[in-house]
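Q: Structure tokens for this one, please.
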Amino acid sequence: RLASLHESITGEEGYALEDKLVFLERAEAQGLPVTPWLKEPALFVCKAVAALLPDRAPLSTLRVVTAATPLHAGGSEQGKTGGGSAKVLSCVWRAGRAGKKTDHFSVLFGVDLLTGVLTGAATTEHWYHVKRPFFGSSPPGRDRHEIEAHPDTGALLKGRRLEGSLEGIKIALSAHPKLCPGVPLVGWDVALTDDGPLLLEGNFSMNLFRPQSFDAAEYTKIIEAHVSLLDLQRRSKKLT
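A: Here is the predicted structure, written as tokens:
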């Protein structure tokens, strides 16, 4: 994986944010909105988002994937400057299933990056079962972004605007250069609450949960650029 290769060559300190306490402390220091980790016993989505979910649904979050440009993901020296540039690659909303404890069990609706409108969904809940094959209550079209309604309610969600999603995307995008400009890719989990979008955590070796709008060609170009830069760094270390 890119994260393992990148950390082994660069020693990038941004990966320390995998520790939830370190993440929360650094995010608060940067003025980013984060979960009230020692103040509240539970976190809930805002009323507008809850209206799209079944009863007893888990906290249903955004996964926003951002990428640093290779120029700013060269390692800890660049990361220490606090500068850097990042872009959003994708965003999905994990609409949780009724009675589940986490949104690992969900349908993954793509979120349009310009409008916040939900697009066709897929599901990955079959990933989290040991026995194969598992189909359970997964709706048809789980891998092809053909799901348009929540399987527990039948409510049509495709085409609906997700309240707070655009603000959540902006927060994730701003977090990358502020917290870890030297890390190539980060998957940010964002909760859409009555207090506004809140960052839950950053994931540095993560699933992309590719929505329909995912630009595979752009992603490939970014990965190739990072790997090329890392190869140059590895070669230069051998020469010194």
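A few notes: Residues 74-83, 134-138 have pLDDT under 50 and may be disordered. The first strand starts at residue 62 and ends at 68.
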